[in-house]
């Protein structure tokens, strides 16, 4: 798999797919798409990069350990639900704010932050599994760390 | 239409059970994947199959029209897919590791944790 | 998109009043565990912080669960429905007496195991995320005990299953991988079976909310033309949950895997996971489908008898202490199943009491065995010995826990057995009572032999090289759990009252239904 063509093209494809994954994530709010599918696209982008340049390169590129990313996503999702305590509504209720950024009204909500959390969980855990499968047999660090 | 789906689900389950009865872990794994897909189809059928519009409220209305597909089974299936997908990924890694460590994918030969010639406990004080 | 102006009347589908602060108690256990587990995943490098955060979070969990139990016992079941939707559209979390007390006791067991793990788990285990997995496991366990939605129950089953995989392979020894593979495959098939049943249930009831199912079941039973297949449903549920709980024909994954991981992990699994299966079985068969349970009670009873007797014989035949305790766990499952099979008020409260007792003693028993194995350097009964001389206090606590697990007075194992015996004799099932007694006798033999050989007799090969003596990491959790069994053995009234109230709440779920649907029990 480690051909010159793949190694040359992989970074470009990875960048494009990562961008597309964010698009799918944000689109998911009102149309088909969302955190889970976006996360899968991002994870497969990283998997392609790993096939071309090895798991070590992926690990360096994303800086944080995949499971740490998944943890951050889980925490973000949980916090999005718990914000409801302060607002006096039941757990996981959607709460909206409409800040004015550069003259445009931007609707932000706990729904989208929850979805970003899902995105990060999926990116982290699927990348961890993909890297474990790509790692050569005697490497072995980080295998078998799943996440739902 | 439901009858067709029921037959298909039965086929999935039968193939899954057949594969899971094998002693080789990779076939068991394939059986589990088939079973998971059969269950998704079952959940889909359980929500009644309708040839109607997707359950999306139009921009100029505030409630759903009188006929719309049931959105709940779709949510259930999506959850089930996510779970079965992550489990399959995990089990794949685990099976691979087991094959590496134990040198076999036959469950009959996996006797490290339960050795055949385990001694009996002492019978006297 | 501009700020929406809603011309729609939201009160038809949404909760419009703010929930009481006490209602948050039912969400907080799970949310706290997820949040702290996620925090530990983020700081995976600083392993020193892990133990501090995890033990603080588990202590907080015990506190919240205690508050929840107090709230439930004084004001009745607590419900919160997510997202502000009205039930049954939103996912409800409902804590009744049964769920709340199980959550509290399992949190106590997890806290003890976490303290014990301070020495049992090495740095590489910590770096693999032991405490993160432990907290996520507790999120799954608390979620399963507190949820009021049957599909959500399935999701929590999967959460605890996937964290248990992570815990099982901590260390990545070949033995562990083999055990984890068998455990993973069979448990996954069990939960898939559960999901299949949920699919059928949804097709029949059109709802997944347990309170909604409970109030609709009566009307559906009256339908004679095209009668809904409720029997199929309950039979499938029983099979799926028996698989999770390790009841006889489908329990061979337990002795194949529970002895392979670190001893703390075995303690958590032996104490908590099978009990989650029993919890779900009781919840579904006693509360939701009691009439159908009656029809297959003989099958459940036969499975209970075989689970007890074969489990006890299995325990008697083991040389490895960890495998022996695995079989003792199975014997306990048989006893609880007997309570489910009889289904009377006494027997259900006996089964609940047994589950509470079993969470405490099985966790403690694994910890005791682990400590004994660490002191002697082996888990093999033929090579163990001389522990009494080396650690008398630890040995005394071990003896208490072993007698409690065997069900001897004056310890906590006695009372549930007495209740189950009384319940089975009340309906004239002398063979069930005989099986309970015979299995208790065999377990007494097994554990007494273990005590005589491993503790009382002099070490076979002379005194082995000195291992660090017991310290607070082990004496604190073992002492706490032993004190619990002794206390509730001598003074069982509060627990008896709680388990009786829990059983009454299951037999007549009107309070549970009212908590979810305040407007009334009729659909």
Automatic annotation (TrEMBL), chain A:
Protein topology in the membrane: Multi-pass membrane protein
A cellular component term, taken from the record's GO annotations: plasma membrane
Organism superkingdom: Bacteria
Pfam family, one: MnhB
Keywords for this protein: Cell membrane, Membrane, Transmembrane, Transmembrane helix
Record InterPro entries: CPA3_antiporter_subunitB, MnhB
UniProt keyword Cell membrane, yes or no: yes
Location(s), subcellular: Cell membrane
Ranges where the Na+/H+ antiporter MnhB subunit-related protein domain occurs: 5-127
Transmembrane segments: 5-26, 32-52, 64-91, 111-133
NCBIfam families per the UniProt record, alphabetical: PRK12509.1, PRK12573.1
Similarity annotation: Belongs to the CPA3 antiporters (TC 2.A.63) subunit B family.
PANTHER family found in the cross-reference section: NA(+)/H(+) ANTIPORTER SUBUNIT B, NA(+)_H(+) ANTIPORTER SUBUNIT B
Protein name: Multicomponent Na+:H+ antiporter subunit B
Automatic annotation (TrEMBL), chain B:
Gene3D superfamilies for the chain: 1.10.287.3510
Keywords assigned by UniProt, alphabetized: Cell membrane, Membrane, Transmembrane, Transmembrane helix
Topology of the protein relative to the lipid bilayer: Multi-pass membrane protein
Record bears the keyword S-adenosyl-L-methionine: no
Subcellular location: Cell membrane
Domain of life: Bacteria
Alphabetical list of NCBIfam families matching this protein: PRK12658.1
Family as reported in the entry's similarity comment: Belongs to the CPA3 antiporters (TC 2.A.63) subunit C family.
Protein name per the record: Multicomponent Na+:H+ antiporter subunit C
From TrEMBL, chain C:
Entries under InterPro entries matching the protein: CPA3_Na-H_Antiporter_D (IPR050586), NADH_UbQ_OxRdtase (IPR003918), ND/Mrp_TM (IPR001750)
Record's keyword annotation contains Transmembrane: yes
Statement: the UniProt record of this protein carries the keyword DNA-binding: no
Domain NADH:quinone oxidoreductase/Mrp antiporter transmembrane: 149-442
Cellular component GO terms held in the UniProt record: plasma membrane
Membrane topology: Multi-pass membrane protein
Alphabetic keyword roster: Cell membrane, Membrane, Transmembrane, Transmembrane helix
GO molecular function, one term: NADH dehydrogenase (ubiquinone) activity
GO biological process per UniProt: ATP synthesis coupled electron transport
Transmembrane region(s): 24-43, 50-70, 90-118, 130-147, 153-171, 183-205, 230-254, 266-289, 295-317, 324-345, 351-370, 391-408, 428-448
Domain of life: Bacteria
Main location: membrane
Record localization: Cell membrane; Membrane
Record-linked PANTHER family: NA(+)_H(+) ANTIPORTER SUBUNIT D1, NADH DEHYDROGENASE
The family this protein is said to belong to: Belongs to the CPA3 antiporters (TC 2.A.63) subunit D family.
Protein name: Multicomponent Na+:H+ antiporter subunit D
Lineage: Bacteria, Pseudomonadati, Pseudomonadota, Alphaproteobacteria, Hyphomicrobiales
